[in-house]
Amino acid sequence: MSEITPFRLDVPQADLDDLAERLDRTRWPDELPGIGWDHGIPLGRVKDLAERWRTTYDWRAQEAKLNALPQFTTEIDGANIHVVHVRSPEPDALPLIITHGWPSTVADFLDVIGPLTDPRAHGGDPADAFHVVIPSLPGFTLSGATREAGWNVNRIARAWAELMDRLGYARYGAQGGDWGWPISNALGSVAEERVVGVHLNYLGSPPPGDVSELSGEEKNRLERQKAYLASPAGYWQMQSTRPQTVAYGLTDSPVGQLAWITDKVTEWTDPASGIDDDRLLTTVMLYWLTGTAGSSSRLHRENAARGGPPAPCPVPLGVAVFARDLVRPVRRLVERVYDVVHWTEFDRGGHFPAVEAPDLLTGDIRAFFRLVRGR
């Protein structure tokens, strides 16, 4: 099947009523006095968010924002794929496929879609316009659960190439962070003749080899990356080894899902920029309403089983490094294996720049693709 079907989000009121009832019946854990964040997200923070979720958060308003965008679904390689597809009014716009990560959703990009598709209306140069394609990853939120094993980053990249074919785009760019890093790289490999360039807002440094010529700052970046890889966060260890076990609690308890996501979003966000609580709750809602806590976790398991890092990307690369991201790459090491034509270091922003610093991300995407549009 290659049919592309219009999609509109319309959550049954019964699902919202069920959520409210579950929140009312939450069985709260105890907490050691004065422990703060040392053992995880504090009880008071989760209670405050749950109360907001139950009483003042307006899902229908968030639903309307998403429904203001053209959305579609299509089946590729046996998986349902949901996609936001916004065409630019500019006839020479470059198609751009943007890949989110975990625990992100297509809603993260609400603030960048307008400036990317219609720069003229947002004080920019119309020559920088894009037709924007933002799929929900297989097994994530509005794409629904995957129905078989094997959905690793390479398979997703092949699905993205097929998706762009179906949309009629023979030449395009790719952008991503988090899972969008290896998926966009892989897309550049499987569709090298079509992808004009890849822009990343997150990636790790390749193995350094001799570090004698590195600066103190570069060595610090490598040490932080080494420490992160040597002792992965608890969520990563669970999702990459026991995603099914994780799924029971997160699928049954909205507060469990809330705490699981909020813990990581808080840790990975620049405190100076932050993420609005309603934006955070929209992320949680999309995972909760679709019941995809388990299936989205499987990508960690699938990629761990695949073994080894993703293959280097053969097309030109642009990199935006945000100050408070999980790890920050070392340019001279990245240049050993990538064709880096653009690199920017920002003094603010974290792991979710489309939400935290949409102005910086938009500007950097534009700047990189000016260099490769004619490729």
Overview of the structural elements:
The chain is of the alpha/beta class and 375 residues long. It has helices spanning 13-24, 43-55, 59-67, 110-117, 153-166, 180-190, 216-230, 234-241, 243-252, 254-268, 277-290, 293-306, 331-334, 353-356, 358-372, and strands at 4-6, 71-76, 79-86, 94-99, 130-135, 172-176, 195-200, 317-321, 340-345. Strands 1-2-3-5-4-6-7-8-9 form a nine-stranded mixed beta sheet, with helices on both faces. Strand 4, helix 4 (110-117) and strand 5 (130-135) form a beta-alpha-beta unit. Helix 8 (234-241) packs across helix 9, helix 9 packs across helix 10 and helix 10 packs across helix 11 (277-290). It is globular and about 60 Å long. The two termini are 32 Å apart. The mean pLDDT is 94.
* Cα-atom radius of gyration: 20 Å
Low-confidence stretches: none
Structural class: alpha/beta
Order of helix and strand elements from N to C terminus: EHHHEEEHEHEHEHHHHHHEHEHH
Distance between the termini: 32 Å
Mean pLDDT: 94
Q: Estimate the strand proportion.
A: 5-15%
Spatial strand arrangement across the major sheet? 1-2-3-5-4-6-7-8-9
What spatial form do the alpha-carbon principal axes imply?
A: globular
What's the helical proportion of residues? 40-55%
Total beta strands: 9
**Major sheet description:** 9 strands, mixed
Number of helices: 15
Produce the secondary structure layout.
Elements: E1 4-6, H1 13-24, H2 43-55, H3 59-67, E2 71-76, E3 79-86, E4 94-99, H4 110-117, E5 130-135, H5 153-166, E6 172-176, H6 180-190, E7 195-200, H7 216-230, H8 234-241, H9 243-252, H10 254-268, H11 277-290, H12 293-306, E8 317-321, H13 331-334, E9 340-345, H14 353-356, H15 358-372
Parallel strand pairs: 4-5, 4-6, 6-7, 7-8, 8-9
Antiparallel strand pairs: 1-2, 2-3, 3-5
Helix pairs in contact: 4-15, 5-6, 8-9, 8-12, 9-10, 9-12, 10-11
